[in-house]
């Protein structure tokens, strides 16, 4: 009964099971329930957070996958991927491992200083292709559609030229409202940019997510102490990322 119940409803708690069994005339402890489920290969885990998907989102994602399933590698090499990200001065990006003795976890040499709200952060826009990183810029104000178009105007085409993209290259960005605004779509059309259709509520398929991770790890290792240094180090480490 225990295994059948949690298989049907994984969110059932041990307390729920104790009460259900007690009503059925069987008295068990929470430890007994844990041991029983563990023997069946079941253990309590934190539920993963995933995008809330409506049927239309599921169909759009499936359509995207099917349309690109057999695309040759050359097609993906001809794409410029872009996104925005936030990098905190102090915070979860500053995780590091240390060698220490028992009970020495609070020694200053074994700690990383943190402050509330991360001590400040900067917002970055960047792009890259299979040929290497494109431009990376700091977004100093709250971004709106007009600012986003200005960023693209100043940085997208220069990035394509620097990366020596082939004729007919494809631009990728997600479905952020600034990206899909009518004025932005019209601007892209007038500039004759080919845009990769991207499904709404898509998982993070954008490979730039891996590049952001790479950048944040290297920035954290240098331990910037203020926002100015954070920006400078971001630019330096981005420039060091090899095309490979």
From TrEMBL:
Residues 80-230 form the Tc1-like transposase DDE domain. Residues 1-70 form the Transposase Tc1-like domain. Transmembrane segments: none annotated. One of its GO terms (molecular function) is DNA binding. GO terms for biological process: DNA integration; DNA transposition. InterPro entries: RNaseH_sf, Tc1-like_DDE_dom, Transposase_5, Transposase_Tc1-like. It holds the Pfam family HTH_Tnp_Tc3_2. This is Transposase. It comes from Pogonophryne albipinna.
């Amino acid at each position: 009964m225990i295994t059948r119940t949690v298989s049907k409803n994984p969110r059932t708690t041990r307390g729920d099971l104790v009460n259900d069994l007690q009503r059925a005339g069987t008295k068990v402890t929470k430890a007994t329930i844990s041991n029983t489920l563990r023997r069946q290969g079941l253990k309590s885990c934190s539920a993963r957070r995933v995008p809330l998907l409506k049927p239309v989102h599921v169909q759009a994602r499936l359509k995207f996958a099917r349309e690109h399933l057999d695309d040759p590698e050359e097609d993906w090499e001809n794409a410029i991927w872009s996104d925005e990200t936030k990098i905190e001065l102090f915070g979860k990006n500053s995780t590091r491992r240390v060698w220490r003795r028992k009970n020495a976890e609070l020694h200053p040499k074994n700690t990383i200083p943190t402050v509330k709200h991360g001590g400040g952060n900067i917002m970055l826009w960047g792009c890259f292709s299979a040929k290497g990183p494109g431009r990376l810029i700091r977004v100093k104000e709250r971004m709106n559609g007009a600012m986003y178009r200005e960023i693209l105007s100043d940085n997208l085409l220069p990035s394509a030229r620097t990366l020596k993209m082939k004729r007919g290259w494809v631009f990728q960005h997600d479905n952020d409202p600034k990206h899909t605004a009518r004025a932005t779509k019209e601007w892209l059309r007038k500039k004759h940019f080919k845009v990769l259709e991207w499904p709404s509520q898509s998982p993070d398929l954008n490979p730039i997510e891996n590049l952001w991770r790479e950048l944040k790890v290297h920035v954290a290792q240098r331990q910037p102490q203020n926002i100015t240094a954070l920006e400078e180090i971001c630019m330096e480490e981005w420039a060091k990322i090899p095309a490979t």
